[in-house]
Structures are given as C-alpha cells and as structure tokens.
C-alpha cells in the first residue's frame, strides 16, 4: 500500500501543551467524524490530551458515496486470509501514528490507540507490528486477526467487549486474554454483559478507570528493579562502613 493522505480530526487543549495523545480508529464503514462523540467524552475526562481521529485508508466497499471508510476490505475475507488482508495497512498506520507524535511532541508511552471494531483490530495488529509504538491499546469490540505468538513488551492491552456482541463474538476477546496470559503480557479485559457491538457507558467508564488507575507491568518492574538496586547499594554501604581497615 502506498503512503496515504489521511483525513484527520483533532481536539487540542484550550491552553498549555498536551500531556497525552489519544488516537481514535473507527470501525468499518464509518469515518473519523463518527468518533466525535467518543472524542468529546474523552476530552471532558482528559482536557490536557491531544485527541486525533483518522479516516480509514480505503473507501468502504459497500458505500458508493465514498463517505464510509475502511482500514482493509472485508470482501471475501476468511479466518485464513484476515491477517494478510490487513498487513498492507500496518506501515501506513505506523507512519500516521509517528507523524501525530512528532506533531504534538509526545512520545510513544504517552500515546494510546483507541480502536472500535475494525479500528480495534488494526490497533492490536499495530502493537504486534511495532512493539511500543503506543503505551496502551484500548480495543473496543475488536479481536486479533490471528492470536499472537509473542506478547508486546512495551504496550499494555485493554479489551472492552459486549457480552452479547453479534458482530465480533466476545469469545474472541476471551481467547485473546487466555493467549496473552500464557505469554505473560500486560493485558486486562472488561465485559459488559448484555451489551452489543458498541461502546456503551459501562465500557467507557471502565476504559477511563483503566487509563487512570492501571499501572503498566513494565512500570512496576522498573520500580522494583530501582528499589532493589537501591537496597543493594545501601546494603553494600553498610558492609563497607562496618569493615575494619
């Protein structure tokens, strides 16, 4: 896939520099404008965040008006060819994310990819394609194209799914969590029983909770390593201090 000119909607802080970068990826047949309600809710919760919503790279197969967009075509898609179908969009999406980071002056660990449906599929795939391109992925009503063989080390994965989703069955999210647990990934899952293929209030509130309260495993490990190093240094100092010359 050649480099694509992507239509972008953005919401920036009213004053001061942005502290977080939240990138929104829509579902198949939608476009960046369909993410406006989610962007407005996120803006109320994180007023110092830079929030960007992108159009999918291709016109939606089923929309002759050209307004609907997609990240990859669903025509003739199967479980066997799904990963290959989306693969050409990964480098252009990575380039788009890097451009947003450069424009806002925010790094990878301050970046969150927030995808719905096909946008969630792309977000999860991108975290595998380039580990650490974002500190977090929030996957609403999404799935892996194929379950990963290796877990990302620098990205935390949050799954949010409706228990009655008729489009992408919640079992895909459960299977992903089982695989990620086996791979010792940093991942969470929240399921809203009775909810369909949507971002409802329960799932949105859980997403905010995760963003505010979940401390990435890598941060815990770094803190523990620092504390252990300090303890060893202090212990060494006590031994040296007690030594007779």
Can you tell me the number of structural domains? 2
The counted number of beta strands is: 9
Helix content class: 25-40%
Largest sheet: 7 strands, mixed
Annotated CATH topology of the largest domain: Rossmann fold
Radius of gyration, whole Å = 20 Å
**CATH architecture descriptor name of the largest domain:** 3-Layer(aba) Sandwich
Spatial strand arrangement across the major sheet? 1-3-2-6-7-8-9
Distance between the termini: 71 Å
- Give me the CATH superfamily of the largest domain: Alpha/Beta hydrolase fold, catalytic domain
The CATH class assignment of the largest domain is Alpha Beta
Helices, by number, come to 7
Structural class: alpha/beta
What share of residues are in beta strands? 15-25%
Oligomer: single chain
Silhouette: globular
Q: Averaged pLDDT, please? A: 89
Order of helices and strands: EEHEEEHHEHEEHEHH
Write a concise synopsis of the structure shown.
This protein has 245 residues and is α/β, with parallel strands linked by helices. It has helices spanning 36-45, 82-86, 90-104, 118-129, 170-182, 201-213, 217-242; strands at residues 8-11, 20-25, 49-54, 58-59, 69-70, 111-116, 136-140, 156-162, 187-192.
Describe this structure in words.
With 245 residues, this protein is an alpha/beta fold. It has two domains: 8-214, Alpha/Beta hydrolase fold, catalytic domain (Rossmann fold, 3-Layer(aba) Sandwich), CATH 3.40.50.1820; 218-245. The protein has seven helices and nine strands. The chain has a seven-stranded mixed sheet, with helices on both faces. α3 (90-104) crosses α4. The longest helix is centred in the last third of the chain and has 26 residues, at 217-242. The radius of gyration is 20 Å and the shape is globular.
């Amino acid at each position: 896939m050649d480099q694509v000119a992507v239509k972008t909607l953005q919401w920036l802080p009213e004053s001061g520099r942005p502290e977080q970068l939240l990138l929104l990826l829509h579902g198949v047949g939608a476009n960046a404008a369909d993410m406006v309600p989610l962007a407005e809710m996120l803006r109320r919760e994180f007023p110092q965040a830079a929030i960007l919503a992108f159009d999918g790279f291709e016109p939606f197969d089923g929309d002759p008006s050209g307004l609907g967009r997609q990240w990859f075509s669903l025509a003739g898609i199967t479980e066997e060819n799904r990963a290959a179908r989306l693969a050409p969009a990964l480098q252009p999406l990575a380039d788009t994310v890097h451009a947003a980071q450069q424009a806002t002056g925010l790094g990878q660990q301050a970046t969150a990819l927030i995808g719905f449906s096909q946008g969630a599929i792309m977000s999860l795939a991108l975290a595998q394609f380039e580990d650490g391109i974002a500190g977090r992925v929030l996957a609403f009503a999404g799935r892996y194209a194929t379950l990963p063989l290796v877990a990302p080390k620098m990205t935390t994965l949050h799954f949010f799914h409706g228990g009655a989703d008729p489009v992408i069955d919640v079992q895909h999210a459960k299977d992903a969590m089982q695989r990620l647990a086996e791979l010792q990934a940093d991942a969470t899952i929240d399921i809203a029983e009775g909810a369909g293929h949507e971002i409802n209030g329960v799932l949105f509130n859980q997403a905010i909770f995760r963003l505010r309260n979940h401390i990435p495993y890598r941060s815990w490990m770094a803190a523990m390593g620092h504390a252990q190093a300090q303890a060893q240094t202090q212990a060494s100092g006590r031994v040296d201090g007690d030594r007779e010359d």
